[in-house]
Design goal:
alpha+beta; Glutaredoxin; Glutathione S-transferase Yfyf (Class Pi), Chain A, domain 2; 2 domains; 4 strands
Length: 206
Amino acid sequence: MADLIFYTNPQSRGQTVRWMLEEIGQPYDTQILGYGTSMKAEPYLSINPMGKVPAIQHRGKVVTEVAAICLYLADAFPEAGLAPDPRDRADYYRWVFFTSGPVEAAFTTKSMGWEVPSERQAMAGFGSYDTAIDTLEKGLTGRQFIAGDRFTAADLFVGAMVNFMLTFKLLEPRPVFTDYAARMTDRDAHRRAQEIDERAAQEMSS
């Protein structure tokens, strides 16, 4: 068994972690879990009591949450070059956590048909959908990459989220978003990850 175990479902946010695993190029074992079945039962609940994927186990330590997994893997395997120098991580941390926090909350509420009343936006961490999305657009405008002058785990995470939102029409296809998503996903590791998950999805449905 590899030191690195990946728990996922091919039709989940685990697709982003699969991409990250393909980027780092290290051996890993995959355990495919079913919604409402093995995902909600032991032994997986001992890995993640939330009963949700993805998760990884690396040398006996468990990491959950997509953003945390991506940043952990970038640090655990520095030879992949997916994390900036520690002195240059301001934008790296800022935009990963902005996207996993305010942006995700904004599109989740929008997809549920909820709208925060204007007089209560101060109570919501993302303020409003428009504020969060406009802020992300400003962060991407005029940049090839979100955090520095090369592709990092921040681009992988933010690019995957933007691509997801565009695919499911949760985000207006503004040129800055469509161009960024296209650039970030135009990578061999992303294509490999997609192929692996597509095969796994077909096997689960057969």
